[in-house]
Each structure stands twice: as structure tokens, then as C-alpha cells.
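Protein record

Derive C-alpha cells from sequence
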Amino acid sequence: MKLSLSETACTYTWKLAEKHLIYITLHNHTQRQN
């Protein structure tokens, strides 16, 4: 159960980081166009 919880937390963190990375990329791209 401890391993399962760790895997869930890792997956959640990666998905969160992925969304954050996409947001930063889009934000920087918008700034460059302006």
C-alpha cells in the first residue's frame, strides 16, 4: 500500500508538472508574439 501511494503521488506530481510546463510554454510563446 505504501508503494501504491508513492506511485500515485509520483504520477500526480508528473501530471501537475506537465500541465505547468505546457502553461509556461504557451505563456512564453504568447509573449514572443507580442
